[in-house]
Amino acid sequence: MLEPADIDHLRDDLLAADFTLDAVSARLGEAGLAGLARNSTVPASRALGDADDAQADAIRLWLLQQPVPGRRLASWSSLPALRSAGLVAGGEQLGATVELKPHGSERRQGWICSDQTPLDGRVTRPRTDFVLGASPASTTLTQLVPPGQVGRALDLGTGCGIQALHLDAGEVVATDLNPRALELARISLGLSGVDADLRLGSLYEPVAGERFDLVVTNPPYVISPPTPDRLVYRDGGFGGDDLMREVVTGAPRHLADGGVLVVLGNWAITAEPWDERLAGWLRPTGCDALVLQREVLDPFEYVELWLADAGLAGAPEYHRRYAEWLDYFDAAGIRGVGMGWLALRASGRGEPVVRIEEWPHAVHQPVGAAFADFFAAVPASRLPDADVLARSWLLHPGVVQETIGRPGAADPQHIVLRQQFGFGRAVEAGTALAAVVGACDGDLPLGLLVGAVAGLLEVAPDDLAADVLPQVRRLVEEGYLLDG
Predict the structure, then answer these.
(1) CA-to-CA distance for 16 and 159, rounded, in angstroms?
(2) Element (H or E) spanning 228, and its range?
(3) Are 147 and 372 in contact (CB under 8 A)?
(4) What pLDDT does residue 340 have?
(5) Segment 209-236 mean pLDDT
(6) pLDDT in tens, 89-142
(7) Do residues 416 and 435 lie in contact, with contact meaning Cβ atoms separated by under 8 Å?
């Protein structure tokens, strides 16, 4: 593969061609970018027209998988190394064998190197060591990570290196059991100016005895029958959802005090309630945890999704593989597959909080701050009643109140407090709770506010406090109320 000096030369060539995220986005326009997101090259090709400039050549070569006359790339200082490494091949017409995409975040502009995505309706079977590029799952995971710099971060199963590109850490360790993934990640990170310690191995084996402030992973979570042609990037090779369980249950040994694990993955839906199954993984860890199940697929939907991903749609063995997968699910008692987000925090408290819920609703990305806020709010939400009443709480500025009722009616039938941030939660509040919460300005203690509202409603303050305190605790835990 490429040596560090070759990667530096390639970066120089890409910059000279103005093959950067902002420049390429402006060149292709919204339609061209949307087409590539659909794996269609036609809108981007029409945006380029007959142009033969250096940027157009780079776009055709790296993004559109189209041949480019070799004479037009002759000035690239990286071309000999690219050809020697097999990343560019051909004679008079040169074509790329990998995909190189401009990529950017608030912190860094760079590029992602991966295997090529099938374009324009082509159905291909990926090689078993295929390295996936920036997928919807991987880009979603980047938005689940709590913001802020950490000391040490672990990208578990780095693939093309996209998570490592986004990590704000003093030290980054990135692992994968696929040697090809580490090679392409090395190009991604090198081009993007990211220094990471790349290690080969499965799960936590490459970091035995080490601890991290942050662990992020989009592991090969697909629940699939064992096959000799399994795809390393998605099929973990474990039975059922055992790989996900190993990721979760193994994390505490590698989390520093206050360290956080963030996972995007799948879990099996069986005869046992799914939340109880996951609680059985989580409670023994001693960590605070928040799990949101975003979607559930029945076995048929799930199998069809991943057979198509493997390039088997329309293949002669499609129905046989479909039946084998369903038989595997039946034998394992898998009735469906849950898909969602999971976060752990090594809180060091004697009684960790484990919250598991269905959450198929729209959210306000990025939601990493919402995970961090949940973990930060747990101790405050568990204070004794007297301390909760003595605190001065502040209503989050992103909370709005919605009232629902018949037009012209004196009072609303429903009062809803809705978050315009994070998970986008909504809770129905009675008149008393809405009045108390609405008065939380961070200055006056809750007990004083409860007393004032009790006087207006002509009820006993102690009775009102007993009624609203459990609801206030929930609002604190869910981020509606902040510790003023």
Answers:
(1) 28
(2) none
(3) yes
(4) 98
(5) 94
(6) 999 999 999 999 999 876 778 999 999 999 998 888 899 999 999 999 999 999
(7) no
- The average pLDDT across 473-481 equals 96
| 77 within 8 A of 12, measured Cβ to Cβ | yes
Smallest CA-to-CA distance from 140 within 26, 235, 262, 274 is with 262
- Strand pairing class (150-156; 169-176): parallel
Q: Supply angle C-alpha 275, 244, 365, rounded to 5.
A: 75
Instruction: Return d(Cα 133, Cα 101) in angstroms, integer.
Output: 9
CA-to-CA distance for 457 and 443, rounded, in angstroms? 22
Half-sphere CA count of 456, side-chain side, radius 13 A: 11
C-alpha span between 459 and 461 (Å, rounded): 6
pLDDT of residue 473: 96
Phi/psi-derived region of residue 128, left when phi > 0, alpha when psi is between -120 and 50, beta in every other case: alpha
Judge contact between 167 and 216, C-beta under 8 A. Answer: yes
Beta bridge partners of 354: 289
pLDDT higher than 80, residue 32: yes
Non-local CB neighbours of 347 within 8 Å, separated by 6+ positions: 258, 287, 288, 375, 378
Sheet holding 426-429, edge to edge: 399-404, 414-419, 426-429
Arithmetic mean of pLDDT over the chain: 95
Exposure string (b/e) for 387-405, b if CB count within 10 Å is 16 or more? ebbebbbebbeebeeeeee
Tokens 């809705």 appear where? 418
358: buried, middle or exposed (CB in 10 Å: 19+, 13-18, 0-12)?
A: middle
Q: Residue 124 has what pLDDT? A: 87
Query: How far apart, in whole angstroms, are the C-alpha atoms of residue 359 and residue 337?
Result: 15
Instruction: State phi, psi for 154 to the nearest 5 degrees.
Output: -120, 125
Distance CA 146, CA 155 (A): 14
pLDDT at 350: 79
pLDDT category at 409 given cuts 50, 70, 90 is: low
Burial of 354 (0-12, 13-18, 19+ CB in 10 A): middle
CB atoms within 10 A of CB 128: 15
Burial grade of 157 (CB within 10 A; 0-12, 13-18, 19 or more): buried
Whats the size of the chain, residue-wise? Answer: 484
